[in-house]
Amino acid sequence: MQKLTQIITLSVALTVVSGCSYVGVYKRDIPQGNLVTQEMVSQLEPGMSQEQVTYVMGKPLLEAPFDASQWDYVFRLDQAYGDVEQRRVTLTFDPQGRLANIEQEGDFSAPLLLDGESSIGPAAEGIDPLDALPEESTQTPIPPSEQPVSQP
Length: 152
Known about the structure:
The protein has three helices and five strands; from the N terminus they run αβααββββ. It is of the alpha+beta class. Strands 1, 2, 3, 4 and 5 form a five-stranded antiparallel beta sheet that branches. Its main location: membrane.
């Protein structure tokens, strides 16, 4: 009986240590597509040219291959320990290339929390990740009027 208990204990221990879902795994948020915010969409107005729309929104993720009058801006955020958030803006242009219609899908009222902009990734345990950053130079640059001039 004691040998059976040892075998079961060893089997359970190996299962937990082998990488099953009982042990935590590092996950990252995965943003994909064009970043689309409410501020960007609020700048769009019917009658804008395609160049003006590109200036505000950037190049579209999807253009209809046979009809360039519809542009789709899709943003998808797969949160590591949460849900998937998707935003989509579909812009339709008239034959003269002017913005005619704006359609939105998704929740644009909630702010997007993209941690990748401020974090530098996972660090080893016990190490401050900010210590790994290169230090900025504290020396002040010499103005051009005070730099030494070499004479031929």
